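Quick one, T. Sequence first:
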Amino acid sequence: MITGDLDRALATTISSAGTWRPAPAGAAGGPRTYATTIAFRLADGAEGPNAVAAGLAARIRGLSWVEAATATGGYLVVTVTADALACLAVRVARAGPGCARSGALAGADVTVPSLATPGVARTWEEARQRVHAVVNARLAEAAGARAQHHHDAERIAAPDSPAPAAASVVTEAVAYAGPDAITYALARLPPRSPARVDARLAAAHHLGNPAYAVRYAHAHAASTLRQAADLGLGLGDAALFRPRLLAHPCEQALLYELSWLPERAAGAARRRRPDVFARFLEGLAATYFGCQEACPAVPPGIGPPGIGPPGERATGTGPARLWLAAAARTGLRAGLDLLGVDAPDRL
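Structure tokens:
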């Protein structure tokens, strides 16, 4: 969402959507900094990219939510304020699935294949092709491409597929680990790597299993919100949200990761690399766990109103952190939905 705000603020003749990336090494600004290559696309013979980037920086430098904007090697490098980043907690939580959307591929067309489960594939390669085709289309649609849904049962077959003897390998893996675990494992396989899935690892319930870690992070955030509700604690009115209460480095790191969700979906769609998007979700989950360790939304000892330490409620930190948990749940669910993987509230 931050990059979308920047795109609208720049209002360039060519959209900057999909061109944002973390700042180059050595750039100032830390975990609130975004860089774009848009100046390279706007440059012409009369004006080089660094001059274009400097002009764009001057255009947005006075915005209240922009802390700094500079030109570095042709990149436009923008640092937003801590408050602007913190406000994502409310914005993402309220956006629902829309938190992953952008206009990076606006004007493109994409066909969304039928949602056949990988278990119908004859080989692991065919199963990967099926999953990647669906996920790539979903990511492109989230990035603004016009989608035409295709509902026939046409098979995506791998060239020179072995005889059906291998079919039971995929089918049995799905029966053992479940379609969601196998779908996630296939989505995170790079396109040209060996097509092979370890069903035992895919089914494992520990954080070393990427599919479980991402789904558990979502379930943990959902559980945190249920626990808070049971204690009589809530998010509170969005209008009363105080962004400065989410200033801890771990909270800012989680917000920064969440801010990249639309760009990561668009980038993966453009490259046709669902595995890159899956690994982004794994990083988001790991950042969420780190944030909850350092800044739990429902700290130990908190009880119903009038019981336990009152500090969290008195300062408003508790509601602010609950908004952050809600944003994490929303972002993780949106990402898992794009992979075609269920995001249960309990695991």
